[in-house]
Amino acid sequence: MKFNSNTLRRWCRLVHRDLSYLFAGMVLIYALSGIVMNHRDTFNPNYSVSQQRLTLAAPLPDKDT
């Protein structure tokens, strides 16, 4: 397979562009996760999930009445 210089140059530019987009996205994700992990106790330290179970003594009335 024979490449001329324009075809090879175009192919290299396209691969370089696509790899740059990929690694730029990875750097952004890494940066955001680092910020979140570094400041995780300042976002909401009192956040908690609680569950309550309630029981009703009398049956509920019908919706039609």
TrEMBL record:
Annotated InterPro entries: PepSY_TM-like_2 (IPR032307)
Keywords: Membrane, Transmembrane, Transmembrane helix
Organism whose genome encodes this protein: human gut metagenome
Keyword Transmembrane helix listed: yes
TM region(s), chain numbering: 21-39
Protein name: Peptidase
